[in-house]
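Predict the 3D structure for this chain.
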Amino acid sequence: MATTDEIIARTAPKHLIDHNLIDRDVESLCDGMVRYEKRPAKLRDGSVAEGIYNAWIVLNNPKQYNSYTTDMVKAVILAFRRASADREVNAVVFTGVGDKAFCTGGNTKEYAEYYAGNPQEYRQYMRLFNDMVSAILGCDKPVVSRVNGMRIGGGQEIGMACDFTIAQDLANFGQAGPKHGSAAIGGATDFLPLMIGCEQAMVSGTLCEPFSAHKAARLGIICDVVPALKIGGKFVANPTVINDRMLDEYGRIVHGEFKTGAAFKEGQAMIKEGEVDLSMLDQKVEELCAKLLDTFPECMTKSLEELRKPKLQAWNLNKENSRAWLALNMMNEARTGFRAFNEGTKETGREIDFVKLRQGLAKGTPWTEELIDSLMPGAKK
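Done. Predicted structure below.
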């Protein structure tokens, strides 16, 4: 009786059709700011599965916290298409360079300096953004969000489009919309109510307060969390977060909440003294990919398609009217918010004077360049 290897050698076709949209590396589309790597897939015992790989799609813009430019969005779309069509790929790992940020969303500098005040241009950009989210949701392979640092704003949205999330516990999660002139309608308002419930989705989507990886795990928005801080050669849990599973005096769960006052500052000092080591994160990602390898590939793809339906239904229902609104919003609040973030500093802050804006609008003041300039951080009040 022939072995499986002998059957493969005898029956595999000599020519396979290439289903990719382009025949060159995705790195060439964005000066290497998105990397596509095929890393050998490993079995549960750590040995390599010959000829099988995990595709790593890596956002490589660390100076701007891995925020995505227009060219990076194009590259991500094509990278997911490539991974989806690659017969050798077991799973996709979506991550960022470094240990500071997975992704903080769209590139605010590009938003402020090109798209602000140009709704027709931003509408075309949002077509690309929508296609990026859809490329993740439509990938034929399971997608793992490897959260190496902050997952904020649009970064949270593309992360939630993934099938699994494993995070290092110094990472923060959250939205930024109403604080910076937008609304979290690039996926967050679709995915959050499904994933964490309407009330917690409301808190995240409107107040824009970041929450810890431990709270993310408690809420069920990620499947696993591991320590990344090493002090004295040993891993310790994020010292700025309440890690004990406990209730406060009102009976509320506080596990995963940030500490306050002096305790928070002490935790920050510990982080500065220690070193960040993502080896446990990588180990957990490899373990998950190894589990995914031990399945029938077509049954896996069908399972993904079915389990993604709640996300897809909400996303497809809203993405086009969201795109139109976001484009028009570039004429006023987004135009103002992105400029403020881009032009502000640590000293002046990166948010406008919200009270002054509300006072002006209450009196019927129209949106003008003069009004926008007066609201910028550091402007004379």
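The radius of gyration is 22 Å.
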